[in-house]
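User: I've been going back and forth on whether these two constructs are worth ordering. Before I decide, could you fold them both?

Assistant: Sure. I'll take them in the order you sent them. The first construct and its structure tokens:
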Amino acid sequence: MRLIQRAIDTILGAGALVVLSPVLVATAVGILLSSGRPVLFRQRRIGLREREFVLHKFRTMTRERDDARNLLPDESRLTALGRFLRSTSLDELPELFNVLRGEMSLVGPRPLLPEYLPRYNEFQRRRHEVKPGITGWAQVNGRNALTWEQKFELDVWYVDHQSLWLDLKIVWLTLVKVLKREGISQQGHATAEEFRGTCGDAGNG
């Protein structure tokens, strides 16, 4: 399955970059003109077998800080163009380069921050048994409208049921969700609140 998935990721990822290259260029120019450099946002994330890699996205926020030099809340730093990019998921397009490098797949659990690793229970850690994806089962079943525990339940369900047909279904549902702009963010957050761990053993079954 993994060899087939890697071949599909490479072919579709390269094809998407070629087809979407005008959109990539236009978005990069828009960010440059509206809020300057850098155009890309880079952040360390956790991938297959809990290995770290650098995720690439289009930058959607400023680096504005308060008088104490602390970054302002995400919602305050989100630019007008950034809000549009997030609502249409265009900010995710540079992750296609992560797919071509073999760090991500088109479909899989979303890659999360390294500091979350010690906060997972054993059930939740299973999400790292497959490559992270640009989209996934949790993203087409609620995305950021879900709780973290619900997302992890769906991630592990995907790990246990991964197949080519399921991946194709997720890609199709993703296109539908993007057009409807559903579940983009949690209320009061630019995307989702920080994961601080699960109380008790909920999520182990």
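The second construct, handled the same way:
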Amino acid sequence: MSLPNVRLHDLGLIDYKEAWDYQEKLFNEVIEEKRSGNQRPLCHLILCEHPHVYTLGKSGVVDNLLADERRLEDIDARFYKINRGGDITYHGPGQLVIYPIFDLDQFFTDIHKYMRFLEESVIQTVLYFGVNAQRIEGLTGVWILGNPSRKIAAFGVKCSRWVTMHGIGFNVNTDLRYFNQIVPCGISDKEVTSLANELTEPVDLAQVKKLLVASMINLFGFELI
């Protein structure tokens, strides 16, 4: 059987709500294709950045947003409650956001394996730059171990009829000061970092995109179109 086909969408810097609506459109199209009997609908992989925004997942606690409305206005940030799993996180310029809209019936029907593959794609990408990132048992995400450990990528997904949406927030050249306005992912005893912070110099985001997509192709086994 041929490999699943995945279309790449590099949207650049795009408003969070606009990207969310675009995700929903593609997500619903894949589900409708499956309902109509198509066993191999086209999947999608969205890459983008967002203007400053905080998003709260279904299992999140709103008190983990430390900024009030006035503070959000002062720092030019928005806030959305959304339909992914997980708690609160931040997206902003310099952070690579990855939204796979995959029909897992074409890959494997195991959401935990799916999450581990997403994490592994980031681990392999940062290793290219000489940064050793790992998982922490019991916690979703990719971490630089230390005292305290530092999260370099956050994950939150939605899955319906084995079709996924939402995904990865990977801190590449992110302004980490924006994380001071939240309790990231509801975890108060660990810090947040970025690839640029670990390397003490800016990173070529285009190169990171290529490396991460190549890692995902290798891990998931799909053909990019």
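Notes on the second construct follow. The longest strand covers residues 150-160. The first helix runs from residue 16 to 35.
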